[in-house]
Inverse folding.
C-alpha cells in the first residue's frame, strides 16, 4: 500500500521550484498571492492538491506566478506534473473510470515528470535552474518513497498484463504501462519487463506502417533502455527506412513527443497521417 497521498506530490514540487525561482519564501508567496501560509504549504506538500483547484483559480495561479517572475520553463511544467500525479495516483489507488494511460498518448514532459518521481532524475528542461540553499533537510526531488515506488511498479505490471489488446485504448494502456515498467531497475523487475517485451517481439518483424507501429516502436525502445539495442536497430531498418508511411509515422511521433503538435491524442492512429497536418507551423 502507498505510504502517503500522491495526488499532488509532483505538481507541489514543481510549484515549490517555481516559487524558489522568483525567489520567494512560502510566507512571501502566500502574501503575494493573497492566501494564507497553510495554503501554500499544502500545495507544495501535496496535502492540498493543486489539481483540486477550480480551473479559473488554477489559471490565475499560473498568471500570478509569471507576473512574480517565476521561471517560465518551470511554470510550463505544471500541466505535465498534474498529468504525472494523476497517473501515479490512479495506478496506486485505482480509478472509477479509464486509467489515464488509456486516455491519451503522453508526451515527453509527462514522461520526464514521471521519471523524476520514480527515479529522482531531474527533467532536462529544468537542469539549468539552480537549487537554492535551504535551512534544514529538504527533498531534492519529488522522488516517491521506496514503498510507494515498489507498489506503483507492481500494480503497473498488473495493469499491463490485464490491458485488453483488442481496441486502441487497451493497446495504448498496455504499451504505455509496459514502457513505464522499464524504469524499475530491480533485477526481478528487469527480468519481468524483458520477458514481457520479448513476448511482443513479433511486432518488430512487420514492415512499414501498421496499426501496431507505435507498440512496436515502444517495445524496441524499452528493450534498448534495458540494454538490448538490436531490436531498435531492426525496427528502424524494417519500419522506417525507405518507407514513406513509416517515416511519416516517426515524424508525427517526434513532433507530438517534442510538443510540435498542439492537440492531445487519444490513441496512436494520428501517427499514420502522411500529410503531417497536425504540426504547428
Amino acid at each position: 500500500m502507498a505510504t502517503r497521498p500522491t495526488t499532488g506530490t509532483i505538481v507541489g514540487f514543481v510549484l515549490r521550484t517555481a516559487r524558489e525561482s522568483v525567489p520567494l519564501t512560502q510566507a512571501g508567496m502566500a502574501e503575494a498571492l493573497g492566501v494564507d501560509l497553510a495554503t501554500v504549504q499544502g500545495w507544495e506538500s501535496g496535502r492540498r492538491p493543486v489539481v483540486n483547484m477550480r480551473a479559473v483559480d488554477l489559471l490565475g495561479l499560473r498568471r500570478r506566478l509569471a507576473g512574480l517572475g517565476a521561471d517560465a520553463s518551470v511554470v510550463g511544467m505544471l500541466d505535465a506534473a498534474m498529468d504525472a500525479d494523476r497517473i501515479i495516483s490512479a495506478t496506486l489507488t485505482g480509478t472509477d473510470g479509464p486509467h489515464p494511460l488509456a486516455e491519451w498518448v503522453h508526451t515527453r514532459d509527462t514522461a520526464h515528470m514521471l521519471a523524476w518521481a520514480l527515479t529522482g532524475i531531474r527533467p532536462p528542461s529544468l537542469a539549468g535552474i539552480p537549487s537554492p540553499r535551504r535551512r534544514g533537510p529538504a527533498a531534492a526531488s519529488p522522488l516517491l518513497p521506496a514503498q510507494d515506488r515498489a507498489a506503483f511498479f507492481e500494480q503497473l505490471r498488473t495493469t499491463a498484463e490485464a490491458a485488453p489488446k483488442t481496441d486502441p485504448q487497451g493497446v495504448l494502456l498496455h504499451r504505455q504501462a509496459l514502457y513505464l515498467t522499464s524504469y524499475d531497475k530491480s533485477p526481478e523487475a528487469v527480468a519481468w519487463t524483458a520477458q514481457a517485451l520479448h513476448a511482443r517481439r513479433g511486432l518488430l518483424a512487420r514492415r512499414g506502417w501498421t496499426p501496431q507501429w507505435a507498440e512496436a516502436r515502444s517495445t524496441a525502445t524499452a528493450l534498448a533502455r534495458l540494454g538490448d539495442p538490436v531490436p531498435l536497430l531492426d525496427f528502424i531498418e524494417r519500419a522506417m527506412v525507405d518507407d514513406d508511411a513509416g517515416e511519416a509515422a516517426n515524424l508525427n511521433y517526434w513532433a507530438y513527443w517534442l510538443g510540435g503538435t498542439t492537440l492531445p491524442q487519444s490513441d496512436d492512429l494520428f501517427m499514420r497521417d502522411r500529410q503531417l497536418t497536425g504540426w504547428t507551423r
In short: Residues 1-5 have pLDDT under 50 and may be disordered. Residues 16 and 44 are 6 Å apart (CA to CA).
